[in-house]
Task: inverse folding
């Protein structure tokens, strides 16, 4: 009678080595959403682990989330937009370019891009059944992470990663860059507008104070107060920056009730 082969010992983890945590495979609806996202984005990933990481919010509790990619994507997006602005608007000085770049990379603008890509349905996050919809900031952050993932994926595939990323950013923002008017940019940024209005009226610079933060991690709500001398206004937003902008807009209406929209 032939003896069965001896059992092979299971490999053991080296003492002190970190345990490997494999990210969970996306569910079928989420997998379809990610395929559709690639189609809308115009980039098919060679390394799908980059896509999975970019679309994993910290709340998902997976082995790795998108925070590192978000850090890289923020820097890449700012550089790419600055480069496009520099080349597309040779008639502009630094001031208008900085203001428009700030408008293009702000949370609200990136959130709108994320929604157009269908990113909300592709993002892995812990969302209780009765939780409010995903806030603007997590989706904007995930978009930055996605852009970083595209850059790294193209780089690993041996293609010109800078050109690949620029093509995506140009397709989204170049029409707005070419159509923008410098004189309208200040009004688009209520915080800058409020600061310049306060200076013109001989008033002290605006002071912003965060009064409260509430809501779950994926849909936070910030309450902010802005004061100029004895005038003040409060507002809420899904990020502190958004709340500050809305508070500044409201205070502008108080300081200039006739001329401000």
Result:
């Amino acid at each position: 009678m032939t003896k069965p082969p001896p059992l092979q010992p299971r490999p053991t983890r080296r003492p002190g080595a970190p345990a490997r945590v494999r990210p969970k495979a996306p569910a079928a609806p989420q997998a379809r959403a990610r395929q559709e996202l690639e189609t809308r984005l115009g980039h098919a990933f060679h390394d799908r682990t980059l896509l999975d990481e970019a679309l994993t919010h910290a709340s998902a509790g997976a082995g790795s989330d998108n925070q590192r990619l978000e850090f890289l994507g923020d820097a890449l997006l700012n550089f790419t937009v600055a480069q496009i602005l520099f080349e597309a608007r040779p008639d502009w000085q630094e001031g208008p370019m900085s203001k428009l770049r700030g408008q293009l990379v702000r949370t609200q603008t990136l959130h709108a891009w994320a929604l157009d890509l269908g990113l909300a349905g592709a993002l892995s996050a812990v969302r209780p059944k009765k939780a409010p919809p995903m806030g603007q900031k997590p989706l904007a952050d995930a978009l930055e992470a996605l852009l970083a993932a595209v850059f790294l994926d193209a780089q690993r595939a041996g293609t010109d990663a800078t050109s690949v990323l620029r093509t995506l950013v140009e397709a989204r923002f170049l029409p707005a860059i070419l159509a923008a008017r410098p004189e309208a940019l200040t009004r688009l940024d209520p915080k800058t507008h409020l600061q310049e209005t306060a200076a013109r009226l001989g008033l002290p610079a605006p002071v912003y104070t965060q009064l409260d933060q509430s809501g779950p991690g994926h849909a936070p709500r910030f309450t902010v107060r802005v004061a100029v001398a004895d005038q003040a206004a409060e507002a809420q937003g899904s990020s502190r920056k958004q709340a500050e902008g809305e508070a500044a807009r409201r205070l502008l209406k108080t300081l200039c009730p006739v001329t401000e929209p």
